[in-house]
Amino acid sequence: MSLDLSRYDPVWRAAEPYMRARKNDVHIPLSFDWCVRLLEHFPQADRDVCLLAILLHDIGWWAIDMETIISEGFRSENILQSDVRYRHEAEGVRLGTEVLRATGWSEDIIAQVCEIIDGHDTRPEPRHLNDRIVRDSDKLWRYEVTGTAVGCDWFGETPAENCRRNEKILPKFETEPGRAMATAALAETRKALKVHVL
C-alpha cells in the first residue's frame, strides 16, 4: 500500500523547532522511516496514528537541558524509570497536542497519538498494535550505523559495547518483523564498524 507521506509535512515543519535537542533531528526521521517499513507488515494498523506518534514521540526532550538528559536519562540506574523520562513524555504530550491542533488533526487522532507518547518509554507493556509498532520503530534506528554512533555518545560506549547493548534489547521488541529488521541491521552495523576487531 502506497502512503502519501507529504501529508505529514506540515507536522514536520511545526515540530521542527522541538527536534533540535538530543539528536532528535536524526533520531526521529530515521525512526519515522523504520515505522513506514514496519507498517507494511501490519495493514490493520492506523497509519496516521503510528506515523504521527513516531514523528512527535520525543519532542518533549526539547524542554530539558542536555546535561540532565545524558546524566539522568542515559547514564543513571534504571534509566527507563527516571524522572526525566516521565518529564519528556509529559512535555511530548503537551507539545504534540499543540502541533497537531495547529496542523488541523482531529481531537480523536490527537488523543490516540498522545496516548502512545505518554508512556512510550516508561510504560511496561504496550496497550495495542499501534503502540507496539511505535515502540519498535523507536528502537530500530539504534541498530543502524548512525544510531550506533549517536548511542555511543549518549551512553559513553565504544561501537562494540553499544552493539552488545543493542543485542540485549532484541528480546524486548514487540513485533516479530521489528525484531527481524533489528537483527539484520545489527549484523550490517557490526560488519561496517568492524566491531569484531575494534
TrEMBL record:
Q: Which domain of life is it from?
A: Bacteria
InterPro entries given in the database record: HD/PDEase_dom, HD_domain
Organism equals Tabrizicola oligotrophica
Which SUPFAM superfamilies would you find in this protein's record? HD-domain/PDEase-like
Q: What is this protein called?
A: HD domain-containing protein
Q: Where is the HD domain?
A: 36-140
Give the matching Gene3D superfamilies.
Answer: Hypothetical protein af1432
The chain's coiled-coil residues are: none
Tell me, what's a Pfam family for it?
Answer: HD
List the top taxonomic levels of the source.
Answer: Bacteria, Pseudomonadati, Pseudomonadota, Alphaproteobacteria, Rhodobacterales
